[in-house]
Amino acid sequence: MKCPYCGIDNSRVIDSRPADDNNSIRRRRQCDECGKRFTTYEKVETIPLTVIKKDKTREAYDRSKIETGIMSSCHKRPVSVEQIEKTIDAIENEIFNLEQKEVESSQIGEIVMDKLKDLEEVAYVRFASVYREFKDVSTFMDELKKMLDSK
Fold first, then answer.
1. Burial of residue 68 (number of CB atoms within 10 Å: 0-12, 13-18, 19+)
2. Which of 44, 66, 119, 126 could make a disulfide contact with 73, Cβ separation 3.0–4.6 Å?
3. Taking a C-beta distance cutoff of 8 angstroms, is the pair 54, 106 a contact?
4. Mean pLDDT over the full length of the chain
5. 62 φψ region: left (φ > 0), alpha (ψ -120 to 50), beta (else)
6. In which order are the strands placed within the sheet that holds 11-18?
7. Which stretches does DSSP call E strand in the chain?
8. Is residue 12's pLDDT more than 90?
9. 14 or 134: whose pLDDT is higher?
10. Strand 50-52's sheet: what is its strand order?
């Protein structure tokens, strides 16, 4: 493992334990060259996943796109980074548990909205307004009514 401080690829593991999500291993390492410590995470490699976008183009699955969407939806909301990470992990687990090589972006969007609804209502509405591309106030109100009726 290459040291993030000095770039030398000679480090040793000084501590290993399961990460908080129980799906990966957290390792504390120490660089043999500069002596600095850093953390790495080891995760089981999953099957490559292709996302089919609305325009029918295909691209490789990218976790950071989900992170960006959720982070902007939760901006200035009482949601911790830990809660967001757990939500993203749950979303990713659900996507990979579909055991499909190709997944439509609309299916991923629905999974994200389902998880956001449980996490924080305002974040859910923010994400839905972008994802569903509300054209006017009435479609926005329809979505709010659905959310209120489901309580």
1. exposed
2. 126
3. yes
4. 88
5. beta
6. 11-18, 24-31, 37-43
7. 11-18, 24-31, 37-43, 50-52, 58-60, 102-104
8. yes
9. 14
10. 58-60, 50-52, 102-104
| Tokens at 138, concatenated | 């009435």
The first and second tokens of residue 148, run together, are 């209120």
The Cβ-side half-sphere exposure at 142, using a 13 Å CA radius, reads 8
Gyration radius from the chain CA atoms: 19
SS3 content of the chain, % helix, strand, coil (to 5): 45, 20, 35
**Hey, is 21 helix, strand or coil?**
coil
Among 112, 43, 119, which residue's Cα sits nearest to residue 83? 119
The helix or strand, by DSSP H or E, that contains position 129, with its residue range, turns out to be helix 121-131
CA dist 71 and 74 (Å) reads 5
- How far is the C-alpha of 34 from the C-alpha of 6, rounded, in Å? 7
Contact assessment for residue 87 and residue 74, using Cβ atoms and an 8 Å cutoff: no
In degrees, rounded to 5, the angle at the alpha carbon of residue 51 between the alpha carbons of residues 115 and 89 is 35
Residue written as token pair 């390492």: 29
Q: With contact defined as beta carbons under 8 Å apart, do 85 and 138 qualify?
A: no
